[in-house]
Each structure stands twice: as C-alpha cells, then as structure tokens.
Design a protein that fits this description.
Blueprint (H helix, E strand, L loop, with lengths): L2 H33 L2 E6 L2 H13 L4 E4 L4 E5 L3 H14 L21 H15 L7 H6 L1 E2 H5 L6 H4 L7 H22 L1 H21 L6 E2 L3 H16 L6 H19 L8 H21 L8 H24 L2
Antiparallel strand pairs: 1-3, 2-3, 4-5
Length: 325
C-alpha cells in the first residue's frame, strides 16, 4: 500500500471517531443546558411563595420568584429536592399559625352595693343575736334537715345564710366575704352576682343535707362566700385566654385558704356546707360563662331589677319562715 493510500485510510477511520466525539460533546452540552433550565416547583399567593423562597434559600437551593404570576422556579436539577423540602415544610406547619384565642370582653359594671348588703348582715345580727337555745330567729330560719326534707321548708336554705352563730363568725364572713362578693359583683354585675350567689348558696346547703344520713343544723353566710369563690373560678374554667394558673390554681387556692380560715371555726358552723357551696358555685360559674349571662353587667336597668329581685327573695323567704312559726 502506498503512503498516500495509507493516509487516506487513516483519515477515513478518524472521521467517524471525530464525528462521534463531537456528537457526544454536543449532547453533553445540551444535557447541561437542560439541567440548568428553570422549572416550576410551586404556585401560590405572594406571601406563600416568598415564604417558600426563604425555605429553599435556607437549604442552599437556587430559586427565583415571579411575583406577577405567583410562581416559584428552581433549576431542573434541584427541582426534586426543592419539592421535597416544600412538602416537609408544609407538613410541619399544618397547624401553624395557631388560631387566635377569643378573648372575652371585659364588662364595665356599676359599683355594687356591697357595703349596703354587708351592713345589712351586721344590723340583722344585732336584731337576731347569737345562736342560743329557744332563739326564735334560729328556730325559724336555721338549716334544719328534717324540716326542709320532710316538711318542705325550703326557705331555710336561704334564711340560714343571714344568721350567724357568734360575733367572730359574723366578722369573718363580713370582712373576707365582703371583698370576694364585691369582686364577684364587679365581674358579673351586682344584680346578676347577688342572684347567682343566693341560688348557688342555697344549692350548696341543699346538697349538704341531702348527702347526710343524720339530722343536721347550720347557719352562716360563709356558704355564700365559698359559692362566690366557686363562681369566680367557674367563670375562668372555659376561658381560653387565661392560663392554667389563672383558670384553676388561683381561685381554688383562694377557696382552700378560706376553708382553712373559716371552714371549721365555731361549733355550729358547717364545713360540709362550705365545700358544697364551693362546688355549687363552680357549676353556676361555668353556667354563667357558657350562657354569657355574666356579660350583661353593663346593662344597668337589668342589674337593678335582678338586685331588687334578690332582695325580694330574701324578704319572701323570711316572710315564709316567720309566718310558719
């Protein structure tokens, strides 16, 4: 074979090889271009795509935002990782942000006539005197389980609240009870406060005698004092804006403190009535909160009507008590 023929053969062999090399380089460049192309990975509102952009930036993924179209773009090579990161972000934040708590409005109420009512207890004690044998006031108005359950003298559940065994009993209820009842009336309105207070205290006295197997006698406004603590506590139990401390621990702590101070003093005072007063007050407080009746405190005329109704109930119960004896 001549030298010229040899050269021609070599060129004929190298030409396909060079062609294949150029084809591979061109394909590689095309693949690189495709991998660098921008592709759509998410679509949403402006706030969402800006938030998603921060997520991808935090993990080092190059991205672009089209604010007008509301889309988020990444390189094609990063698209799979980007969508995986966004899915994980959405999953972690399904319950975020937390729905805002509904804060119950603060009701501005009129100044309650606390001094009037506490003064009335003091004057009434001056009229009735302490608990002694054959005292007609106590015979007619004290809690007497047999008279209430067997003879239907239900009014004793309330009249007993206005009687006190001795001066220490009276002073403790007026000083500590006056403060707590005042706070209750400021929170719910003085009419709603006093009406609820009387009903819950009567309920506490009733539960106390129903759950006893022996004859029982008691007097004292302290049952109503513990009912007031229970009402204040019950109003907080379903309040989402309050912490656990404010909802439960502080009100119950006040109740336990009062039990320690007032719950066992005197021979004729009734620890059981105090406990059941607290429990019944808790139930009435929850009822007030659920029905939003405690938000009616700003309605002055309604509060006056309810307060007068409370006074009439007290007078009517004593009318029945004295008329029956």
């Amino acid at each position: 074979m001549s030298i010229r023929s040899w050269d021609n053969w070599v060129r004929s062999v190298q030409r396909p090889l060079q062609h294949n090399k150029h084809s591979n380089d061109r394909a590689s460049r095309q693949e690189t271009v495709q991998e660098d192309a921008w592709v759509l990975v998410a679509k949403g509102g402006l706030k969402d795509i800006e938030e998603w952009s921060l997520v991808l930036s935090a993990v080092g993924i190059d991205q672009q935002i089209d604010r007008h179209a509301g889309i988020l773009l990444t390189r094609k090579r990063d698209a799979g990782q980007a969508m995986s990161q966004l899915r994980a972000f959405r999953q972690e934040n399904l319950s975020w942000p937390v729905p805002p708590t509904v804060v119950r409005p603060v009701v501005r109420t009129d100044n309650p006539p606390t001094l009037l009512m506490i003064g009335g207890l003091i004057i009434f004690y001056w009229l009735t005197g302490p608990w002694q044998a054959a005292n007609p006031w106590f015979e007619a108005g004290a809690v007497n389980s047999s008279a209430i359950l067997d003879q239907g003298e239900w009014w004793r559940l309330l009249t007993a609240l206005t009687l006190h065994a001795d001066q220490m009993h009276l002073v403790g209820n007026c000083v500590i009870g006056g403060v707590i009842v005042h706070l209750l009336c400021k929170a719910t309105g003085y009419g709603m406060g006093w009406l609820t207070l009387l009903l819950s205290a009567m309920t506490g006295n009733l539960l106390n005698i129903i759950l006893r197997n022996t004859p029982h006698y008691s007097v004292g406004f302290s049952t109503a004092v513990f009912a007031a603590v229970g009402i204040l506590c019950g109003r907080q139990l379903n309040n989402r804006a309050s912490t656990v401390v404010r909802q439960l621990i502080l009100p119950l702590g006040a109740g336990v403190g009062l039990l320690a101070m007032l719950g066992s003093e005197g021979e004729r005072t009734d620890f059981g009535a105090h406990v059941f007063g607290l429990i019944s007050g808790l139930l009435y407080g929850i009822l007030l909160q659920l029905t939003d009746f405690d938000l009616l405190g700003k309605r002055s005329r309604l509060q006056l009507v309810l307060f007068l109704l409370s006074l009439l109930i007290i007078i009517f119960c004593w009318f029945l008590a004295l008329g029956d004896n």
